[in-house]
């Protein structure tokens, strides 16, 4: 005999299965709804994150712009300083031996263009000037005579207005002689190496307007760095003139 099954039980089991399936459908729908809500919540966050990159890009552009501006400002300041320094000074190279032992061949000298804007040329000053016979060339010599002075060289000594100069800076006593009268607006200059110098004894007086400036120090080579001395050769004589404004350009200095 085959076992007998109760129809009620079978129907009950079928009814339960349908209910369970209904519950599963509800769970699935709830799960899908939750997923959709999460996606909707994530979308604004993603938009905010993407939007946050824009300020960073903008900030990066601002930094590059500021960097370029800093470079331009630095270059402009460098140009201004360069022009200002060249307007007030010159750097010249000694070429020759006419100022030995004070200056040696190959030394570099700093020249002040402002010295005679606020003061007068004095005897004993070492100056750089345009060579009157060739303005493209520049020489460096020591001022001996001022306008109105009488300069004489006799018996190995130099005198100004009858007073012998005590020149401890020269290499040797001059082996020549002569007399010169310094005119207004002009100077009498000599090299410290008196017997090996092309100066006023050879080509005459130096006009004021040919002066470039006053040599103030040796800055190269470093072992020979030194401030140049400008001794006051005569204390009792006064200079009867005012310095002249000079705007000469800076070029190499040549000595003969």
Description of the structure:
- The chain is an alpha+beta fold.
- The protein has 2 domains: 9-88; 94-227, Umud Fragment, subunit A.
- The chain is built from 2 helices and 12 strands.
- The protein has helices spanning 7-88, 200-203; strands at residues 89-93, 108-112, 126-131, 134-145, 150-154, 157-160, 163-164, 178-181, 186-190, 206-207, 211-220, 226-227.
- Strands 1, 2, 3, 4, 9, 10, 11 and 12 form an 8-stranded antiparallel sheet that branches. Strands 7-6-5-8 form a 4-stranded antiparallel sheet, with no helix packed on it.
- The longest helix has 82 residues, at 7-88.
- The relative contact order is 0.16.
- The model is unreliable at 1-16, 45-54 and 236-256 (pLDDT under 50).
**Architecture per CATH nomenclature, i.e. the level-2 architecture of the largest domain:** Ribbon
% residues in beta strands? 15-25%
Distance from N terminus to C terminus (CA atoms, Å) equals 147 Å
Overall, the morphology is elongated
Please state the structural category: alpha+beta
CATH T-level topology of the largest domain? Umud Fragment, subunit A
**Tally of separate domains:** 2
Helix count? Answer: 2
What is the mean predicted local confidence, pLDDT? 77
Radius of gyration: 47 Å
Tally the beta strands.
12
Indicate the low-confidence ranges by residue numbers: 1-16, 45-54, 236-256
Core attributes:
Umud Fragment, subunit A, alpha+beta, 34% helix, eight-stranded antiparallel β-sheet, 256 residues, elongated, four-stranded antiparallel β-sheet
């Amino acid at each position: 005999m085959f076992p007998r099954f109760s129809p009620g039980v079978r129907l009950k089991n079928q009814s339960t299965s349908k209910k369970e399936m209904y519950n599963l459908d509800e769970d699935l729908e709830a799960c899908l709804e939750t997923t959709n809500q999460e996606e909707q919540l994530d979308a604004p966050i993603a938009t905010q994150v993407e939007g946050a990159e824009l300020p960073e890009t903008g900030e990066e552009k601002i930094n590059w712009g500021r960097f370029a501006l800093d470079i331009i400002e630095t270059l402009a300041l460098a140009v201004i300083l360069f022009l200002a320094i060249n307007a007030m000074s010159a750097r010249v190279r000694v070429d020759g031996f006419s100022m030995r032992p004070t200056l040696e061949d190959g030394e570099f000298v700093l020249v002040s263009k402002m010295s005679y804007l606020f003061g007068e040329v004095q005897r004993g000053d070492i100056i750089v000037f345009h060579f009157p016979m060739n303005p493209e060339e520049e020489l460096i010599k020591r001022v001996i005579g001022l306008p109105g002075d009488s300069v004489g060289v006799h018996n190995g000594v130099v005198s100004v207005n009858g007073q012998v100069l005590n020149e401890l800076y020269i290499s040797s006593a001059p082996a020549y002689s002569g007399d010169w009268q310094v005119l207004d607006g002009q100077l009498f200059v000599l090299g410290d190496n008196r017997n090996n110098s092309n100066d006023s004894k050879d080509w005459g007086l130096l006009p004021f307007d040919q002066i470039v400036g006053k040599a103030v120090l040796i800055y190269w080579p470093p072992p020979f760095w030194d401030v140049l001395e400008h001794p006051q050769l005569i204390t009792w004589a006064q200079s009867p003139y005012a310095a002249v404004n000079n705007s000469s350009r800076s070029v190499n200095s040549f000595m003969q």
